[in-house]
């Protein structure tokens, strides 16, 4: 029980840091509306991953992203395609995806290594 709480606290801290990073990127780098289609896709990925792994914060974030994506589904078509993005925007998106994959992998590894103890 203690280890699950620890993992949830660490994941919660990462989610808060992630939100601050997104606010910073939006404020200083990108002047675009949120990509609600991407929110929906993140929700589709995080919800089952959180349910399977038992990480509460992950599936709660997945549900939140799904709800946000569905609520704004009419705005999905107005975003530029990959080929229309500048190299700076492409680098930010690639970095975001890689950091997200790394964090999820670290959390799943920590769950596998810490919880059996």
Could you give the topology of this structure?
Layout: H1 2-28, H2 36-53, H3 56-71, H4 87-114
Distance between the termini: 11 Å
Poorly predicted segments: none
> Helix tally?
4
Measured as a percent range, the helix fraction is: over 70%
**How many discrete domains?**
1
Query: How much of the polypeptide forms β-strand, as a percent range?
Result: under 5%
> How many beta strands in the DSSP annotation?
0
Q: Looking at the structure, what is the overall shape?
A: globular
Structural class: mainly alpha
Largest sheet: none
Averaging pLDDT over every residue, what do you get? 78
Helix and strand sequence: HHHH
If you compute it from the alpha carbons, what radius of gyration comes out, rounded to the nearest whole angstrom?
16 Å
Characterize the structure shown.
The chain is an all-alpha fold. It has one domain (2-114). The chain contains four helices and no strands. It has helices at 2-28, 36-53, 56-71, 87-114. The longest helix is centred in the C-terminal third of the chain and has 28 residues, at 87-114. The termini are close together.
Summary keywords:
mainly alpha; 117 residues; 0% strand; 76% helix
